Amino acid sequence: MNALPKLTLSIVMAAASTVALAQESTHAGHGSHGAHAGHAASAPAELIEGEVKKIDQDAEKITLRHGEIKNLNMPAMTMVLRVKDPAMLTQVKVGDKVRFAADRANGAVTIVQLEKAQ
Ligand SMILES: [Cu+2]
């Protein structure tokens, strides 16, 4: 008579943690929540293909036509991105094909890794 309730309980617990995980990932897609800074840094994202359209060295911004950014739930588009390190902007020029990783920092999409595509 003891075995069954235990089994039921562990199934319920497993289901509950699955739901929690699902909510977590839905959540992550919506970006800027300052209050939620407690999470460990996310795993390194895979590199996204892009093409440099414009570089603004002074503002530390770059305009890229980019492919889908899965970790940000962002479809392919052309947009302005910040760079984590302004030195990144000296390594590429307009018209270059690049590969990059992006993350959200303070509500702005920021390039955290940038390299010229071979
Ligand atoms: Cu975009």
CATH architecture of the largest domain: Beta Barrel
Largest β-sheet summary: 5 strands, mixed, barrel
Count the DSSP helices: 1
Unreliable segments of 5+ consecutive residues: 21-38
SSE-based structural type: alpha+beta
**Bound compounds:** copper (II) ion
Provide the β-strand percentage band.
25-35%
Radius of gyration: 20 Å
Chain-averaged pLDDT: 78
C-alpha termini separation? 66 Å
Silhouette: globular
State the total count of DSSP E strands. Answer: 5
Description:
With 118 residues, the chain is α+β, with helices and mostly antiparallel strands. It has two domains: 3-30; 48-116, Copper binding periplasmic protein CusF (OB fold (Dihydrolipoamide Acetyltransferase, E2P), Beta Barrel), CATH 2.40.50. Helices cover 22% and strands 34% of the residues. The chain has one helix spanning 3-28; strands spanning 48-56, 61-66, 77-83, 97-105, 108-116. It has a five-stranded mixed barrel. Strand 1 and strand 2 (61-66) form a beta hairpin. The longest helix has 26 residues, at 3-28. Copper (II) ion binds at residues 66, 74, 77, 79.
